[in-house]
Amino acid sequence: MSHQKPRKRCEGTAMGAIVLDLRPGIGIGSFSLGMPICEAFAQIEQQPNIYDVVHVKYFDEEPLKLDIVISFPDHGFHLRFDPWSQRLRLIEIFDVKRLQMRYATSLIGGPSTLATFVAVYALFGPTFPGIYDKDRGVYMLFYPGLSFAFPIPSQYTDCCHDREAELPLEFPDGTTPVTCRVSIYDGSTDKKVGVGSLMAKAVAPPLPPGSLYMEEVHVKLGDELFFTVGGQHIPFGSSPQDVWTELGRPCGIHQKQVDQMVIHSASDPRPRTTVCGDYFYNYFTRGLDILFDGQTHKIKKFVLHTNYPGHADFNSYIKCNFVIFGSDFEGSYTEAHSDKNRITTCTKWEQVKEMLGDCGRAAIQTQGSASNPFGSTFVYGYQSIAFELDGPALQGAVAYVQLCESPQIMLVASYKGEGRDSCTAMY
Question: Where are the membrane-spanning stretches (predicted)?
Answer without folding.
Answer: 103-124
